[in-house]
Write a structure and sequence with these properties.
The chain is mainly α. It has one domain. The chain has six helices and no strands. Helix 2 runs antiparallel to helix 4, helix 2 crosses helix 6 and helix 3 crosses helix 4. The two termini are about 35 Å apart.
Length: about 170
Amino acid sequence: MQNVPPSNSLASSPSRWRRLSAAPWLVILARLLVGGLFVVAGFSKLLLPHAEVVALMQQYTVIPQTVTPLIATVLPWVELLSGTALLIGFFTTPAALVVALQLLAFCLLMVVILIMGIEVEDCGCFGQWGWHETPLQVLIRDLVMLALLWPVIWRWQDVWALDAWGATSTSP
């Protein structure tokens, strides 16, 4: 009699995540969705005058006003570049990690805003493009995007990514 763990055991859980992460359609869908949202978010802020982006960020009163102009300058470019890299599959894993770090920072900010009870009408995530979200909605959306990044970070290879163009095939 073989000693085989049941399929619903915790020991088989990591291998299930690996199999899910290896599903090429899921990796492609997650890359396109999350990368696309970051491209739109960054681009929408770049279209605004710098003073408006600073004003959007100053509504989060927990961010020190001395660094707000720097964040307003750098964040849209980081969102745009990391989103584009994720979207086209260029340095996919590092791009996914940069996006994940941004999402973790945004989640932390939203949790602080919610705990402190700071009123924020519009997160400003997408500039003035009409997607007005409350901090709770932003937190939920960002947690969902973090979950979508999991298979992208743990994938082996994505054939629809630029990363795969220079890779050699291991199949016979």
